[in-house]
Specification:
This is Cytochrome P450 87A3-like. By secondary structure, the protein is of the alpha+beta class. Helix content is 53%, strand content 8%. It contains 16 helices and 7 strands. The chain has helices at residues 9-13, 23-32, 51-57, 71-76, 82-101, 103-125, 133-150, 158-162, 180-203, 221-228, 240-267, 270-285, 296-300, 303-316, 348-351, 367-374; strands spanning 35-40, 43-48, 65-67, 322-326, 330-332, 335-337, 342-345. Strands 1-2-7-4-3 form a 5-stranded mixed beta sheet. A two-stranded antiparallel sheet has the order 5-6. Strand 1 and strand 2 (43-48) form a beta hairpin. It starts with 8 loop residues before the first helix and ends in a 6-residue tail after the last helix.
């Protein structure tokens, strides 16, 4: 459990440039096996890298476990409502998000909207002497998410402010000028001012017919959650700006590094890049109108593209794991994980398992041809 009070916090927060599992986890897996205990920031934590046990655990939301956030993350996106909303809020959030970002919206309109924005951005990149992929994708993603979520294109360069903001999660939450956490909290406050202003403007004249003059309805995600204020106990005028901020942050700080990694892997793997290029050139060649936009059938035909995406996501592993709080004693292999402990579930142990993936640290999109054939359910 490490030193008194601080436990093994310093080792856990140490940075690593490897795509392999964090050295903190790797060392303890070798020493103790797939389930071990530690102490992080004064909290007892059980760490599981056992795929079968993890699968069981993730079916126990609201029974044995509930969502839990590190103190630094809670303070980053915190609102008083968040500590009381529980699993029901996250089920509501997932359902509402899928209705605007899921399969049907993607097929109906988002695919063409994404293509237009991305093409515009790529043309801008051609005028740059060099491109920092992560930094350049941030404003593009922020503008896209802002438009879909709340039909708003910010005049301020807030997308840039969100770049690398999640790094504050893996730091001590010390609100002292000069620290990473302090700088990120300042950026958060700037973003909350924007989302609060948009919510306030949307709520004015919201209760109206769409055809009425001055009606603020846009048919976007914000319309849905504003309409649910009063119907759902956790949705309030004060809470919604924090919700929008959290969604914008999640979009920028997960997709941007993923695109960056995919770019890096492809540049380091000429064979995969060639296969990807040939797949897309074939789509263009088969078009009757070379200038027509991407259609759903073309998107679904991108087999090797899907392999590249799957392989990138397998290797990505942006965060060390998924945190849950134990709300009832859990018994496993003769041990007890006590109520009140924190549980860290490690998907990376499955993603980087050499018994499942040959040369797990190697970028090899073609491996998915075998997996998708052997496990048809992965195709969805």
């Amino acid at each position: 459990m490490g030193f008194p009070l601080i436990g093994e916090t310093l080792s856990f927060f140490a940075t690593s440039n490897s795509i392999d599992m964090h050295p903190f986890i790797n060392e303890r897996l070798k020493r103790y096996g797939p389930l071990f205990k530690t102490n992080i920031a004064g909290r007892p934590v059980a760490v599981s890298s056992d795929p079968e046990f993890n699968y069981f655990l993730l079916q126990q939301e609201g029974k044995l476990l509930e969502l839990y956030y590190m103190d630094s993350f809670s303070q980053m996106v915190h609102h008083d409502n968040m500590s009381n909303v529980g699993g029901y809020f996250h089920r509501y959030l997932r359902r509402s998000i899928l209705s605007h970002f899921g399969h049907e919206p993607l097929k109906r309109k988002l695919l063409s909207e994404f293509e237009d924005v991305i093409n515009h951005e790529l043309h801008k990149w051609t005028n740059l002497p060099e491109v920092d992929v992560k930094r350049q994708t941030v404003p593009m993603l922020f503008d896209l998410a802002s438009q879909i979520l709340m039909s708003h294109k910010p005049e301020e360069n807030l997308g840039e402010d969100l770049n690398n903001m999640l790094q504050s999660i893996m730091t001590f939450p010390l609100y002292i000028p000069g620290t990473t956490f302090y700088k990120c909290i300042q950026k958060k406050r700037k973003a909350i001012k924007l989302t609060s202003r948009v919510v306030e403007e949307r709520m004015k004249g919201y209760s109206c017919d769409n055809s009425a003059e001055g009606c603020n309805k846009k048919g976007d995600y914000l319309d849905e959650i504003v309409g649910d204020i009063g119907k759902e106990a956790f949705l309030t005028k004060e809470f919604v700006p924090f919700l929008l901020f959290g969604l914008l942050l999640a979009t920028v700080e997960t997709i941007s590094p993923t695109i960056t990694l995919a770019t890096m892997y492809l540049l380091d793997n000429p064979s995969a890049l060639q296969q990807l290029t040939e797949e897309h050139e074939k789509i263009l060649k088969n078009r009757e109108d070379a200038n027509s936009g991407l259609v759903w059938e073309e998107y679904k035909s991108m087999t090797f593209t899907r392999y590249v995406i799957n392989e990138t996501l397998r290797l990505e592993n942006l965060l060390p794991g998924m945190l849950r709080k134990v709300i009832a004693d859990i018994h496993v292999d003769g041990y007890t994980i006590p109520k009140g402990w924190v549980l860290l579930v490690m998907p990376t142990a499955l993603h980087l398992n050499p018994n499942i993936y040959e040369d797990p640290l190697t970028f090899n999109p073609s491996r998915w041809k075998v997996y998708l054939y052997s496990f048809p359910w992965l195709r969805s």
